[in-house]
Amino acid sequence: MSMPFRRPSLATQKIAAMDALRANVMIADAKLNIAYLNPELERLLREAEAELKRELPRFNVDTLIGSNIDIFHKNPSHQRGMLAALQRPHSATIKVGKRVFDLLVTPLREGNTTTGFVVEWADAKERLLNLDYAGQIAAVHRSQAVIEFQTDGTITAANGNFLTTMGYSLDEIVGKHHSMFVEAAHRDSADYTAFWDGLRAGRFQAAEFRRVGKGGREVWIQGSYNPILDEKGKVTKVVKYAVDVTQRVKAVAEIGAALSALAEGKLDRRIDVPLTPELDKLRVDYNEALSNLESAMGQVKSATSTIGEGMSEIHTAANDLSQRTEQQAASLEETVAALSEITRGINETAADAVKANQTTATALRDAENGGQVVAKAIDAMSQIEASSQQINQIISVIDEIAFQTNLLALNAGVEAARAGEAGKGFAVVAQEVRALAQRSAEAAKEIKGLITTSSEQVESGVQLARASGKSLEEIVARVQEVSQLVSEIARSADQQAGTLREVSTAADQMDKVTQQNAAMVEETTAAASNLSVETEQLATLMQRFRTASDAKASARKPAKAAAPARPRAANQARPATAGNTALKQAPSQESWAEF
């Protein structure tokens, strides 16, 4: 016997239906105690449980049924008051930690009594993301030109910004191919084919593109072509987001042309047409900088001309100075050699003077010794003279004795004669005595004569010795004077030799310094020559730059006329060249004519 079929109760059917729902459903009774969670909501809350517990420490999915909904609220009284007054479904969004949920609260009523609440939960993440994406897309459409294509390049849609940029209406472009916006040469190129092949392969293209607007107008856009993929990764369409940069590109081109002119040295090129607001300040600054550069380059040109003339004169002066320095060095070298010879001669003279001084000193000593000998001879001659005088006195006594003896002999003869015979013998003796007295008297007379002669000779010798002594005294005095003079000459010669040695040392030092100066002058001359070459190169380089004054000057020149030499400005003083005739000659101005 078969069992009769029992239909499930309505409540059971409702529970089963809610369990099968993909929606997230919660039921609470009138006291706000949670009575039911369907599986979808339980799964959602378990997924968010860890995050919810950071904000709601009492939250626990396992004990959620039977718990009060106050566990979801930090201020339960506010929610209770709101729910008590709730008469119709109410939508709300709550944020717990980083989780955001959309809630739809529907009161369950029996008559006028609220018996419970049904709460539908939804994760608000996707909704908020969609809102964010929609807001971003709206912002993009407000600020950028947007156009959509099929994968073959057929236009399907475009926003107002794009239509304004290209000058078309929507009806004029929908159904047309993208190639209508490119030049014919590019349209038929392999690059254009590869461009669309890349988009169909899912590779986006971003760059600055040159396009053709309505009427052939040139349009520049900064944009990206973006392949849009479906859930399977297949490209379904291509969307381009772009910004019109035509004015910026033209402004950059204008600036580039101006910079190219500047690179060619044309300083009279200005950007007179206002550019886009973000670049116009650059235009103003460029014009101002160019004006300053033009002024500076004009001054540099003038200064280069002056420097060139000055360098020519400096180069000439350096050559002259180099020659004179070489001559001076050679002359000084000869002077040093001559001073060396003089010093050597003075040294020899000083040595000879020293020897002469020594010889003179020896002669002085010899003369002094001779004077002493003469003095002794004079003394000896004086003693001889005194002895002669004494001998003369003795001879006088002998003569007197002889006279007396003769007189006595005479008296004795007289007496003997008187005595007669008795006196003969005595007379003979008296005669002999008389003869002896006569001989003595004669001898004394002779001796006296000799003594007188000897005395005269001795006196003459004494006088001569005295004269010789006086002469020797004078000779000694003169020898002393000569010795003093020779000593003074030797001292002066020694001083002169020392002075000449110092002069020779100084001259040698001057010679070394002059040689160094000559080397430095050669280096200076070489540097001046190099600087002159560099100045000419600078002048040649400066000819690349053309200022407004140059342009006006060239405009005033007749065709094919030779460029005249640039006259010197009135306020430009020529460098002083006094004392150097080589520098007084004006340098050639042919190389500076362009300035």
Automatic annotation (TrEMBL):
Residues 303-532 form the Methyl-accepting transducer domain. Residues 579-595 have a biased composition (Polar residues). Its main location: membrane. InterPro entries: Chemotax_Me-accpt_rcpt, HAMP_dom, MCP_chemotaxis, MCPsignal_dom, PAC, PAS, PAS-assoc_C, PAS-like_dom_sf. GO terms for molecular function: transmembrane signaling receptor activity. The keyword Aminoacyl-tRNA synthetase does not apply. Residues 279-342 form a coiled coil. Residues 205-257 form the PAC domain. It is found in: Membrane. Residues 146-189 form the PAS domain. Gene3D superfamilies: Methyl-accepting chemotaxis protein, PAS domain. Pfam families: MCPsignal, PAS_3. Residues 560-578 have a biased composition (Low complexity). Belongs to the methyl-accepting chemotaxis (MCP) protein family. This is PAS domain S-box protein. It comes from Jiella endophytica.
